[in-house]
Structures are given as C-alpha cells and as structure tokens.
Specification:
This protein is α+β, with helices and mostly antiparallel strands. It folds into two domains: 189 residues, Penicillin-binding protein 2a (Domain 2) (Alpha-Beta Complex); 352 residues, 3-Layer(aba) Sandwich (Beta-lactamase). It is 35% helix and 18% strand. The chain has 21 helices and 20 strands. The strands form six sheets. Strands 2, 3, 4, 5, 10 and 16 form a six-stranded mixed beta sheet that branches. Strands 12-11-20-19-18 form a five-stranded antiparallel beta sheet. A hairpin with a 5-residue loop joins strand 2 and strand 3. Helix 10 packs antiparallel against helix 20 and helix 13 crosses helix 15. The longest helix is centred in the first third of the chain and has 30 residues.
C-alpha cells in the first residue's frame, strides 16, 4: 500500500513548478514581449513634452500677410517631482512675487500632482534665458515652447478673432484639447480652428532624479512630429479694410463690402473697433475685461453681423422689385406725392414719378402705394396671404434668417411673420395700412449690415447672389466649402432689376431730385440708395447702399453711421470713398475724405445697451 503523503508531495511539487513556470512566462512577456508595461514603469523617469504646431498663417486676398506667429514660453510644473527650493531666487528669475508663486503652485496641485500643468504663461525672452540656465536647480519645472499670434497691422479684429486658453468645459467636450491648450475664438480663428490649429506632436525625454533632461527616450523613435496648421487666404483686401476703419474712427456703425460675382467679403468694419494685438499674451485677460466692460462703445460687439437696424429707404428697391414681379406696377407706373401718403410723410420733390424716378428721389408715397397694391392684390384670398407671399421674396434675398456665412456669430435680423400681427391685432383684423411702414423699411423690420450688403450684391447681379464668406481658400490646395460656390437665384425676372438699377444710378448720377449726388465718382457709374434708419434712442442713423461699376459690378457695399442723420450726409460719402479706394486705389475728392476723417460723432452717441439688442 502506497504512502498517501508521497502523492501529496508530488502534487505540491507540481503546483510549485507550474506556478514558477507561469511567473517566468509572465515576466518574459512583460519584460521582453510587451514594451507597454516597461514604458508604464518608466513613466516616473520620462517626461512627455507636447510639441505645439505653428498655427496656420492668415493672408489677405492679394497675398499680404495679416497674421503670423511669434515664439513664446510657458513654465510647466509637475508637483510630485518638485522639491524644497530657494523660492526667493526662483521668483527673481521669473519676475514674480512669492504670493504668485504660492497661488500658482496651489492651482497646479489642485489640477494634478503627477500631470504637468502651466505654472506661468508666456514669459519674456529675457526671463526664459535666465530660467533656462538654472532650471536644473528646480526639479519638476521645465519650459514648454509655443507660439502666439502676431499681427502685421492693428486692424480687422472683428474679422480675424483671437486665440485664448481652453476652459474645462471645452476639454470635457473635445478630448483633443488639454489644459493649457489654446483655441480660436470668434472670426476666422474660430470658424477655421480645425484647419488653423494643425496637429500636436510629442517628444519623450529621459530625466534624472533632479528632473534634468538626460536625452531622448528610445533615440526618439517614439516621438511624433507636430504638423503645422493650414494657411488661410482670406477674402478681405487689407488696404481697403484699414482705410474703412480709418474712415469710421470716432464714429459708431459698420461697413460691409462684397464682391458680387463671388460673395467674397472685401471689407467688414465694425466701429468702434480695437487693436487685435491687445488680446495676445499675458495682457489678454486684462485687456479683454476692459474692452468687455465698455458698455458705451461696445468695441467687442460686431455691428456688421449682430446689430439689427431698420433698413429705412435702402429697402425701397426691394419693394419696387416685388411690385414689378407681382404685376401691380410697371416701370412707367406713376404715383403722385403731396409730401406724403396718408400718415407717412415725405420730402419735397417733383410729382408724379415713375419707378426709376421714385428710387432716385426716394419717394415714400410711391412705395407706400406700391406696397399697398402688393398686399391688396386680388389674386390672393386675403391681406395675410399676400403678406406671406411678400415675406417669401424677402427670405429669398436672405432677410429674416442667417445667410449661412463662415462667420460664427452672424444673426438673422427680423422679418415679422403674419402671426406676429395676429397676436397684436387679431386674426384677419389687420390690413395693408396697418403695416404700411414696412413699405419704406421702417416698423418692426430689422436687418443686419451684412444682409443689406448681400441684398445690394443681388441687385448688382440682377437677381442672384453667392453666400457671403470671409475666406477665399484654405491650404495649398485652395479648398473652399462648396456651399460658397452655390448660386442663390431670386424669383424675380432679370428684366425688372434694370428699372430699379436705373433709379439707383440716377440717385447718384444726377437725375432730377437725386438724393445721393455726393457719392458720385467721375468716370465710375455708381448705383446707390440713401436711407435714414429711425432710432428711438437718439438721432437717426445714416444709411447708404451702392454698387459699382453699374454694368460690371466689382463691389457692393452697405454703410451704417449711427446717430448721424440723413443717408447722404455721412454714409454716402463713406461708401463713395470706399468704392474709389477699391477700384482705383486712390481718392480724387480729397476735401470729402478730409471731412469724413475729421468727423467726430462721439458726442451724438448715447449710452443705451438696448439700442442694438439682436432681434431673432
């Protein structure tokens, strides 16, 4: 009979051998086969340094550099790797106080003891040089190179946007971004962030117990290279943009200029503006707060895209076109004017007038009677049905909705739906005369300067437009969103546009009673329309739309000068100067230019934060 203890001995020996073999195999796999475990263990002696790519450059339409990059340095810290240091000397090297040192360390520790975070942003070149020499004395600290934006001229801030540090909310939404990363905000910087930012890389270094770099890990085989962001060719003419901002100095308002044949925005001015360089580097936060707190001038507010104004008489060409298309008037239809129509006043001019003459003379009576015929058209079952059809024409022009541009903060303006009047007056209880102010661009209607420039481009094109956009091409391949090459056609016969354009040409070119002679340019056929937008908060706004040349339009423009009165007084001269500057790169009427440059309308500006509250 066999001893049972012998069997147990063999079983135990087998278990020990099996366990030992399993351990040997596991160690072999970990140490030889799988580098990932070894790399994880090495993390305590490795430093991962993000390689930030150079952000893409931004050029104007003629290849002039607008936005480039400049070197900057962040001091990074890994709290778990720090030790007791000479705080006084450390602070002296970086030109900071001990209070700042303690505050930044607390912030870093709260973020993570083991992960790197920014201790001090964007130090000067001099501080960087001093710190680099003695960095070995401060384990856990290292320098992170990066770039900041640099502007060739102090203009186009509302177009370009700015770059700022990401917040925790964005980091949670988008895993690409980490603490300390930067992202485009507003303008081109935000709209084309994914193209401009490039792709981050990483370098892995071996460090000693004093956090000193001893060389690249694995001879750099595990490093990745940063990929520079794509360059942007914007659609703006930087010289025209600079000139427009100069003309609008000490004024409040906007200028939008578009190339009708492409929808490319040539210039977009919102005044008051600011130097984009104010929002770069360590001074950004302080300057942003200062700009944001200026509720009187609101320099951060982009009036060209976000202000909702009544278009005033600049809206009359559209109502004339709708009247022609609806068949309620012809080019030769005449209406009399006895300085007004019912309760809508008008200025003194000859009477009666046909359509081109009414456009040139800006006759309120003519367009009130035309609008009444549109809404009382017997082919519709009711005024409300006719109104809905009228509104559909406006929607085709791009009013009442966002145009779909590449501007991230474009607003829709407001064209009241029929239900709006039902709420105030009751269903079927309002008539054409109830809304007659819409005939002359007043009342509840609200449009943005961008929409008015787009409307002008559509008239210049005799019935179509391309979605306005601020970027001409992206990257070396010259990519562009296909939607910007799509033609938007308006359901109004091309022939009808000639009647309105004839009136707009007469308004500038000297037709009897012309309201915009001040905008005339010798040798260039300018077509324009003045407007005065009512302002319940102060003096009315001066408005003007125009395009030129008449038969080969290169530029369509809308100008708003707030609290400046009649359209011919200030908006028309500004538009005329902009047109000549773009078409000839020179100015013939130096006296008019000097008058506009010296004009200071700040005393007409009343602080009222509700004046341009966006209307949806």
């Amino acid at each position: 009979m066999k001893d049972p203890f012998i069997n147990r001995k063999y079983i135990v020996m087998a278990l020990v051998i099996t366990g030992f073999l399993a351990l040997i195999i596991r160690l072999f796999v970990i140490q030889i086969v799988k580098d990932t475990y070894r790399l994880s263990a090495d993390n305590n002696v490795l430093r991962y340094v993000t390689q930030y790519p150079a952000r893409g450059l931004i050029y104007d339409r003629n290849g002039k550099l607008i936005v480039s990059n400049q070197a900057a340095y962040d001091i990074m810290v890994i709290p778990s790797q720090t030790s007791v240091i000479d705080t006084a000397e450390f602070c002296a090297l970086l030109d900071i106080t001990k209070d700042i040192f303690r505050k930044q360390m607390r912030t870093a520790i709260n973020y993570s003891r083991r992960a790197p975070s920014v201790f001090l942003k964007q130090i000067s070149d001099a501080n960087y040089a001093r710190f680099q020499e003695k960095m070995f004395l401060y384990p856990g600290f290292y320098v992170q190179p990066r770039t900041l934006r640099k502007y060739s001229r102090p203009v186009a801030a509302h177009i370009l946007g700015y770059v700022s540090e990401v917040d925790e909310g964005l980091i949670k939404k988008n895993p690409y971004y980490k603490s300390g990363d930067y992202i485009g905000k507003s303008g081109i910087e935000e709209a084309y962030e994914s193209e401009l930012r490039g792709q981050k890389g990483v370098k892995i270094f071996m460090v000693d117990v004093f956090s000193r770099i001893k060389g690249s890990y694995a001879d750099g085989s595990m490093d990745t290279v940063a990929v520079q962001g794509e360059d942007i060719i914007s659609s703006i003419n930087i010289d025209l943009q600079e000139y427009g901002e100069l003309l609008m100095k000490n004024k409040r308002g906007s200028i939008v200029a578009i190339e009708p044949s492409s929808g490319e925005v040539l210039s977009l001015v919102s005044a008051p503006d600011y130097d984009p360089g104010l929002l770069v580097g360590r001074i950004r936060s302080e300057n942003f707060a200062r700009l944001q707190s200026d509720t009187a001038l609101q320099p951060l507010f982009n009036r060209a895209l976000m202000a909702s104004y009544p278009p005033g008489s600049t809206f009359k060409p559209v109502n004339g076109l709708i009247g022609l298309q609806e068949g309620v008037i012809t080019e030769d239809t005449k209406f009399g004017c006895d300085q007004g129509y019912l309760f809508v006043g008008c200025h003194l001019h000859s009477s009666p007038l046909n359509l081109p003459q009414a456009v040139a003379n800006s006759c309120n009576s003519y367009f009130c009677q035309t609008y009444r015929r549109v809404l009382e058209n017997k082919k519709y079952g009711s005024v409300e049905e006719a109104y809905i059809h009228w509104k559909s024409y406006l929607n085709q022009f791009g009013f009442g909705s966002r145009l779909g541009t590449d501007f991230v903060n474009e607003l829709a303006g407001f064209i009241p739906p029929a239900s709006y009047y039902d709420r105030f007056h009751g269903k079927n209880r309002w008539k054409a005369l109830t809304v007659i102010s819409l005939a002359i661009g007043q009342g509840e209607i609200g449009t943005t300067p961008l929409q008015m420039a787009n409307m002008t481009a559509a008239i210049a094109n005799r019935g179509f437009y391309y979605t306005p956009h601020i970027v001409k091409a992206v990257g070396h391949e010259g990519k562009i969103d296909p939607k910007f090459t799509l033609k938007h056609t308006i359901n109004i016969d091309t022939a009808h546009f000639e009647s309105v354009i004839l009136g707009m040409e007469g308004a500038v070119g000297g037709m009897a009673g012309a309201t915009a002679r001040v905008a005339a340019i010798k040798g260039i056929a300018v077509c324009g329309k003045t407007g005065t937008a009512q302002n319940p908060h102060g003096k009315d706004h001066s408005v003007f739309i125009a395009f030129a040349p008449k038969d080969d339009p290169k530029i369509a423009i809308a100008v708003y000068v707030e609290n400046a009165g009649f359209g011919a007084t200030y908006a028309a001269p500004v538009a005329s100067l902009m047109i000549e500057k773009y078409l000839r790169d020179s100015i013939s009427n130096k006296a008019m230019e000097q008058r506009i440059l010296e004009l200071n309308l700040e005393e007409n500006i009343k602080e009222d934060e509700t004046e341009h509250k966006p209307v949806e």
